[in-house]
Amino acid sequence: MVRFVVMAAGLASRMGKDKLALPWKNTTVLGHVLDTVLAAVNNQASALASTLEIQVVARQPIEKYVSEDSMNEFYKHSGVWHFAPNPRPLADTIKIGLQDLNSEVHSYAFLPGDQVGVTAQMLSACLAEVIKHPPDFLVPMTGETAGSPVFFHKRYVPELLALQGEQGGRVVLNRYGDRWRKFPVEESFFYDVDTPEQYQALFSQT
To answer: pLDDT at residue 106 above 90?
Structure first.
């Protein structure tokens, strides 16, 4: 079993507004990322789709970001929406996503809520690889650049829970460079919307 944690409760303020609620295609930035995760889950064989968990840690209720149809799909997959109204450092968001640990989950994937470049096809391929042969770490790579979502084996959960402040999973990942299973993706897979300029540039391509 694999748990996806979509991280949407950060301290980022460069946009001057809630960037996750900005329009993206026929939904919002966060709605698009969640729809992509749901599509990747649905791409798995039906027997495997039931072995996946989806959790979102966000500063606003689900209705702010997600359409009614996507909301129904999310809850059909027993999705969990953690409402965390105050801005939280990255380590706290990770810890919320690791609450109520299920002993059947062998891998945890962390995906930023603004990573609009993520595609269902590539995410599904990553997921299939992790389900087939759970690695210590599955790391999406473009050239020598690593990005999200990284899949962590459950043996690293204690180290993830020990993170502090703005420390993210990369702190744990970088301790074990010899244990990475690298998974090639296109550079666009890592596109996110950190600034108004990035948002406008990417939005114009949708």
So the answer is: yes
Given this model, what pLDDT does residue 96 score? 97
Give me the CATH number covering residue 18.
3.90.550.10
Q: What is the CA radius of gyration of the chain?
A: 16
Tokens of 111: 């995906």
**What's the CA gap between 61 and 144, in Å, rounded?**
37
Over residues 124-129, the mean pLDDT reads 94
Collapsed DSSP state (helix, strand, coil) of residue 138: strand
DSSP-assigned states of every residue in 40-86: HHHTS-HHHHTTEEEEEEESS-GGGT--HHHHHHHHHTT-EEEE--S
Q: Give yes or no for a contact between 107 and 2, defined as CB atoms under 8 angstroms apart.
A: yes
Q: Is 137:180 a contact under the CB 8 Å cutoff?
A: yes
Q: What is the dihedral of CA 124, 192, 184, 144, to 10 degrees?
A: -160
Tokens representing 79 are 């999705």
Number of domains in the chain: 1
Distance, CA of 59 to CA of 137 (rounded, Å): 28
192 within 8 A of 201, measured Cβ to Cβ: no
Strands (E) across the chain are located at 2-8, 23-24, 27-28, 52-58, 80-83, 107-112, 137-142, 145-146, 150-153, 180-184
